[in-house]
Design brief:
350 residues, 4-stranded mixed beta sheet
Length: 350
């Protein structure tokens, strides 16, 4: 089987490449190698993968890359919450235009199988229950509440405290920042393409991924890499809000395994299907900072009370569908994963 991995030189994409090659697939990588992400050709990219340096938004390049391809793993994206609204055109270009160009080229080439790297950010705030009103959709948190240290979203009906629950794939999508909006658009484009071409799309909604090859010293990195960067510099990790934000942290090797399972499953009937790719046990952001600091022997985390508009409070996943339909279960426990990540090599984009 020949697989095209867009963004295959990146953090998650390169691990997907490794998993595919280990399973006997032939792999072609399309990556633009943006200088803010890659200061040089990454040495970790397996030489057995054919590398094409190019832009997923360039139709001619994508068409060439699709020659004799059976499945596409679309990992290429601009990631992270962003710095400010000036990042919006970048998200729209790299994530949405790039996906549209790829899908049009796949239709022309007759490639009908796609694994799409999506994200838990499509949910916005997670699933909440009010004692009086049952399951409710939490409104985006207000700057005034966050500045006052009121971090938990209240019931939108009665303002009572809410209890956070698990998000399933059927939870309504509610993006709260530009990156999240671009990932929702990717899913909608892929679903429309699947309907129009009788194709198969499996959208993997990654929850908080960590592991080797994460970029360091960049505001676009995930919180795990930001904490690691601080500790590597001898500084205390700065934990926003009160550190109680709950997430499902998942090792990148597990994410690569999920992609391999999805590549096989794309051989099924046409249509769009989403999956939470997550560990089974949530932890707080504070838990992660504490575990990394302990594993590195670095300074203890500092809880700052700072916040970012567009961040969400709790997103915790129900991973049952991936287990039942893909046979995927995250294998790396949080504690050992944090110990391994504490000394794992990061990469510099500068």
């Amino acid at each position: 089987m020949r697989v095209l991995v867009t963004g295959g030189a990146g953090f998650i994409g390169s691990h997907v490449v490794d998993a595919l090659l280990a399973d006997g697939c032939s792999v072609r990588v399309l990556d633009i190698l943006l200088p803010q992400v890659h200061s040089m050709l990454p040495g970790y990219l397996d030489p057995r993968a054919e590398l094409v340096v190019g832009d997923v938004a360039d139709a001619a390049t994508v068409a060439r890359c699709l020659d004799e391809v059976d499945v596409v793993c679309h990992q290429a994206a601009m990631v992270g919450l962003g710095v400010d609204v000036a990042d919006m055109p970048g998200y729209a270009r790299h994530n949405d235009l790039g996906t549209a160009v790829l899908l049009a080229a796949m239709a022309a080439a007759g490639v009908r199988r796609l694994v799409l790297a999506s994200s838990m950010v499509v949910y916005g705030e997670g699933r909440y229950r009010c004692p009086a009103h049952g399951v409710v959709a939490a409104f985006p948190r207000l700057a005034a509440d966050l500045a006052a240290g009121r971090f938990e979203p209240p019931c939108p009906v009665c303002a009572a405290p809410l209890t956070a629950g698990l998000v399933s794939e059927d939870t309504a999508l509610d993006p709260s920042n530009a990156y999240a909006a671009s990932k929702v658009a990717q899913e909608h484009l892929a679903a429309a393409w699947a309907r129009s071409t009788d194709s198969r799309v499996l959208a993997l909604r990654y929850h908080n991924v960590y592991g080797p090859r994460m970029p360091r010293d960049t505001p676009y990195a995930g919180v795990a890499a930001i904490f690691r960067s601080a500790l590597a510099a001898g500084k205390a990790p700065r934990v926003f809000e009160d550190g109680g934000q709950r997430r499902n942290f998942i090792a990148v090797g597990d994410v690569a395994t999920a992609n391999l399972a999805a590549v096989v499953a794309t051989g099924g009937p046409g249509g769009f299907r989403a999956y939470n790719i997550a560990s089974a046990t949530p932890h707080t952001v504070g838990d992660m900072a504490t575990a990394l600091a302990a594993a590195t022997g670095g300074p203890a985390p500092v809880v700052t009370g700072e916040y970012r508009l567009g961040d969400v409070r709790h997103v915790t996943a129900d991973p049952a569908r991936a287990r039942q339909e893909l046979g995927f279960v995250a294998a790396v426990p949080f504690e050992s994963g944090m110990r391994q990540f504490a000394t794992a090599p990061l990469r510099s984009g500068r």
